[in-house]
Amino acid sequence: MNRLSERYISIQKTIRSHDYEYYILDDPSLSDHEYDELFRELKQIESEHPDWITPESPSQRVGIKPDKDFATFKHFQQMLSLANAFNAEDLNNFHDRILKNLGSHNQIDYFCEPKMDGAAVSLIYEEGILTKGVTRGDGVLGEDITSNIRTIRSIPLTLKESKSSFPALLEVRGEVFIKKPDFEALNLKAEKNRDKVFANPRNAAAGSLRQLDPAITSSRPLAFFAHGIGSCQGKEFNDLQEIFSVFLSWGLPVNNLNKLVSSIDECLQYFQDIESSRSNIPFEIDGVVFKVNELFLQKQLGEIARSPRWAIAHKFPAEEASTEIENIEFQVGRTGILTPVAKLKTVNVGGVNVSNCTLHNLDELKRLDPRVGDGAVIKRAGDVIPKMVRVIPKKKNRANAIKAPQKCPSCRSAIVMNYQLEWIVTDSSKSKPLKKFSSHYEAQNFLEINNSVNLSISEKSLETPFIKCSGGNSCSAIFQGKFTHFVSRKAMDIDGLGQEILLTLIDQKFINDFADIYFLKRHRVELEKLERFGKKSVDNLIKSIDRSASVELHKFVFSLGIEEVGETTARNLANVFGSMEAIQKSSFEDLIAVPDIGPRVAAKITDFFSDSENAASLELLLPCLSITNPNFHTAAGDMKFSGLQIAITGKISPMSRDEVKNLLVLEGAKVTSSISKKTNYLIAGENAGSKLVKAKTLNVKIINTNEINNFLNDPKKFF
Ligand code: IVH
After folding, report:
1. Ligand 1 pocket: which of 111, 122, 227 to mutate (most atoms within 8 A of CB)
2. pLDDT, tens digit, for every residue of 216-247?
3. What is the DSSP string of 115-163?
C-alpha cells in the first residue's frame, strides 16, 4: 500500500466517524470546514484513481439515475403493521391478552418508543455492507429504493466495527422522517421556487423516497431511526434492548427517547410523558409504541391479521379543526352506492389538508343535518379518513334539509334503497323469534344442529341507510368506477391510466371491457391521434399495460371489484385456492371455510362468478394475463393439513376459533361448520354441544382442549 492509498483509506475512516458523531451522537469533533476539506481531498484522490472507488466510499452516496420504475423486492421477513390503542382500557386489554396467550401471569417487560410519523423502510446489510433499501410496500413486496436510501447521511453504508460481529444478512427495519425545522425550511424553499409545498413531513419523506432521481432525494433533509429487525442470519439476540444497543454500536441511529419498562402502568406513564413533551420533540410523532421486550415471548405470541400480538401503537387523541361546508354532493361508487360527500373550504387537520369529507350514508346525514354554508368540525386521527364530528349551523332557516336524490346524478336512473336480507329462525312453541342470521346458510345450519321439528326459517328484507343507483353497467359513474379500481395501484397497478385518460378511452369506445385495456396496442395509430396523446405517451402507456399483465393472483382477484372482497379477502382466496380456476370453481361451502369469509361474502363471490356478463368478461381477460402466485404452497404435501376436513366447536383458548381456522386453512385444511361423514376431525373446546354428540355418532376423531396445541403443531401424531 502506498502513502496515497493509506491516506485515502484514512480519510474515508475519518469521514465515516464524523458522520457517526454528527448524525448519531449529535456531537461532532470536526468543524464543518475541516469536514469539507477532507471531503474535497477524498474526491481529489478519487479523480486521480477512479479504480479505487467502491460503492461504500462516502463520495458514492448519490448514484446514477435509474431509467424506469423501481424494481419489486420481496422482504425476507414480512413487514407487519401495528394494531392501535386509544386509551388506558385498550392498553390494559392488550396486556391481558398477552398474559392470557402466554398462559402465565408473569411480569412482562415492555420496550417503549415514540411512534415516528414517517415512511417505513427495510435496510439490508450483508456482512455489514448496505446492499439494499426497500419501501414497506404491502408488507410482503416493497420497492427497491437502494439508490435513494444511500443518499441519507445518517444511514451508514457500512456498519461500524464493534465487539458484536456482523450477521451474514440483516434486515434493519426503521422509519425515514424529516425533522420539524428541516420540514419548515424545505417548504419555505419550495414556496420561494414556486414548487409544490408538502402537507406534512410524512408526505415529504415518503415522496422523497420515491423520486426516480437520487439527486433529488439527496437534496431532501431525510433522517432515519431503526425500530426493528427482520430476518437476521448468523446472529442471535435475546431482546429488543440488546438489539438496539448492538445497532447503536454498529453506528445505526436509534431514538434516544426509547425506554425499557417493566409494567403496563409504566407504559401509560411513558405515554403521558411523551405526550406532554410532544411539542418539544423535534420530529412529528403520532403516538408511542409498546413492544414485548423478550424475543422468545414475541415468538410465542406470534401475529394476527398482519399485526404482531406482542406490540401495539398507543395513538395520541385525534386532532380537530373547523371549517366551512361549500357544497354537499352525492357520489356514485363502483358498486352503485351513493355516498354523500361534503366539499369543504380546505383546512389543515393534524398536518393534512382536508377538502372533502365523506358523510357515509343517510343515517349520518340525518345525524349531522348539514347545510351549505354551515360550519363543520373535522377530526382526523393518524391515517384515519377525516370525519365530520359536528355541524355548526350558520343558517337561521333550517328548512330544506339535504335530501337523498330521486335520480342518479350521473345517469338519471332511479335511486333505490339498498336492502339487506335477514333470516329468522322461529320456534313454533314459543312466541318470540329464536335467532337472526345474515345468511340462509347459517340459519339452515342452526336448524340442522338443533334438529327440532318446531323450528322454521323465515326471510325478512331490512332497509339499510344506503341508497343505490339502479343503472348497473349502463351508469357511466359505476362503469368508470370499476375501471378506476381495476387499474389502481393495489389492483392491476397500471401507471399512466389516470382518471382523465381512462375517461377519454371509455368515451371514445376504446375500452368497453377489462380485456380491451390489453388490446389497446392494436389501436396504437388511432390513439396517437387523440388529444393529449403522443407517440411517447402511447408508448409508455402500452409499456405499463404490458407490465401489468403479469400479476399476482391476489392483486388480480382484488382488481375484479367483487363486492365485499377487499385486499385481505383477496389474499386469503389466493392463499387457499392457489389459482384463478380454483377460485372460479369454488362452492359456497369451500368459500366459507376461508379465513375472514362469512356466508354474506361467500354469497357475493359465488354471485359474481355465476353472473354471465362477468364470466364472459373473464373469458376475454384471462388469456391476456400471466397470473402468478409465488407464495402458494404448490405441493399439497408441503401443507400440514392438506386433504383434511376439520370442524371446530366449543370455546377455545388461548387462540380464538377464527385464529385456529386461519391456521388450519392456510395449511390446506377444509374447515366446515357442520359435521358430516366426510369430517376427519372435530376440534372440541369447552362446552362443546350437539356437534360433539354428532361427531361421536359418526366416529369422527375428536381433538380435545388439551390436545389442540399438539394437533396444530404436529397433526401427524393424530393420523
Ligand atoms: S414497529 C411489528 N416502531 O408504524 C412492528 N413502527 O403500523 C412494526 N412506526 O409501518 C413496526 N414508529 O412505519 C414500529 N417505533 C416504531 C415506529 C413504527 C413508527 C410505523 C412503521 C410501521 C407503522 C406500524
Report:
1. 227
2. 999 999 999 999 999 999 899 999 999 999 99
3. EE-SEEEEEEEETTEEEEEEE-TTSSEEEB-HHHHTT-TTS-SBPPP-S
